[in-house]
Amino acid sequence: xxxxxxxxxxxxxxxxxxxxxxxxxxxxxxxxxxxxxxxxxxxxxxxxxxxxxxxxxxxxxxxxxxxxxxxxxxxxxxxxxxxxxxxxxxxxxxxxxxxxxxxxxxxxxxxxxxxxxxxxxxxxxxxxxxxxxxxxxxxxxxxxxxxxxxxxxxxxxxxxxxxxxxxxxxxxxxxxxxxxxxxxxxxxxxxxxxxxxxxxxxxxxxxxxxxxxxxxxxxxxxxxxxxxxxxxxxxxxxxxxxxxxxxxxxxxxxxxxxxxxxxxxxxxxxxxxxxxxxxxxxxxxxxxxxxxxxxxxxxxxxxxxxxxxxxxxxxxxxxxxxxxxxxxxxxxxxxxxxxxxxxxxxxxxxxxxxxxxxxxxxxxxxxxxxxxxxxxxxxxxxxxxxxx
Length: 388
Hints:
There is one protein chain. The chain is mainly alpha-helical. The protein has 19 helices and no strands. It has helices at residues 2-7, 11-15, 18-48, 53-60, 62-80, 83-103, 107-135, 141-170, 172-191, 206-211, 215-218, 224-240, 242-252, 260-283, 286-305, 309-322, 326-337, 343-372, 376-387. The radius of gyration is 21 Å and the shape is globular.
């Protein structure tokens, strides 16, 4: 009878349970801070600190590179130590990374802040999702995970507009104080959670678990073609992300409020993401890949031809409508391709493609822009990559 009652729990009951709601709001503030720093990082480094775009791009890519390195380590750390403690540590490090940005004026300082930020993000992401699985009933796990992951979409919808508004009005230092305040809220909320880790019987020691990590745990040769898809889409996504859109708009179109691009695209994706989920279930993930390839190509061409905010908004609409399935498509294809006992390595392979795509894109975008003398040429290149 008790099991039946649990199965009948409504979405609202799951969302508004004390532990889950605390974790969700904490993650929402952390995502808001993370997205905000990402939205202004390139502009801050080039316009405020006077660094070369190539240098700032390589520093921006450090977060994804750290994520790639930390992928196997965080899984072991979170599994072997108190998860609440690891989540608190992650949020504390995110707060520290914003404070570091307040006091740095050099490339070395930016690198240090990004390394701390990358480690923090990998740690809290791993700990947070596992804790969600522990604080909700097993029958409600799918609902809980879906709602929890929405925090990233919600945060990225408003972070660019919010943080650029603060930076343009009060300066970049005020914006970094704001992001530090966001993650401090996450930290305080997590501290309030009642939680005690239960140690599993026959659990390996931390160092034994580290030694057991092999390439076969992280990479699947069968999913290599899908890795290429995830790499490509992530590569193009960086050019359509708030950071480089804002840089292009500010430097070449004299538009200061280009953060609206991310807001429009993400609001549309609230609708298109679940619709593409249905398409994947009914017709297959390849149709989401086709739609995303066409969507990225069209959006990039429109961006390349833009002369005003109208062009940016049109590109955002195309991006939001056609690319809503890009994030889910490669992961779904990989998970369906592999048997149940190898789905973790399939997911890891897709993640590796994302991490490498993000790192390489942040380095190559300013290099290509320098070659063409404009970011318009880079958007044309991205359109070609999308079609390929």
